Amino acid sequence: QVQLVESGGGLVQPGGSLRLSCVGTGTTFSSYTMSWYRQAPGKQRELVAGIATGGRTNYADSVKGRFTISRDNFKNTIYLQMNSLKPEDTAVYYCNARLLPWDYWGQGTQVTVSS
Question: Looking at residue 78, what is its pLDDT?
């Protein structure tokens, strides 16, 4: 059974940092495009950052220069380093692995940015 498990969320003050991790089990994810999405209360889920198999990355405009996505294929793990966090970054963050037709999601981890 394929699973993605996120960790690293929590409560942080504005301007602070968090590092999210997503560990995959049940298959090898080196051939998958891996991404982080987020969903804030009352809003649609949105793409935050993605990383292709070759390492090319893309980011939402709202997080460019503050967030960094990376992957470690040996550990079947992706990361999201989040710096200079803002209250509007508050959301549930989800890990996604996609190699069509396969499309897997984690259960999400809550990130709250508040003073």
Answer: 97
CA–CA separation, 45 and 61 (whole Å) = 15
Candidates 78, 72, 105, 71; CA nearest to 3 is 105
Q: Are 51 and 70 in contact (CB under 8 A)?
A: yes
Residue 12, pLDDT score:
98
Q: What is the pLDDT of residues 52-99, one digit of tens each?
A: 999 999 999 999 999 999 999 999 999 999 999 999 999 999 999 999
Tens-digit pLDDT profile for residues 27-39? 899 999 999 999 9
Residue 5 · residue 23 · CB < 8 Å:
yes
Q: In angstroms, rounded to a whole number, what is the distance separating the alpha carbons of residues 66 and 52?
A: 19
CA atoms within 13 A on the CB side of 108: 12
* CA-closest candidate to residue 80, choices 92, 91, 93, 90: 93
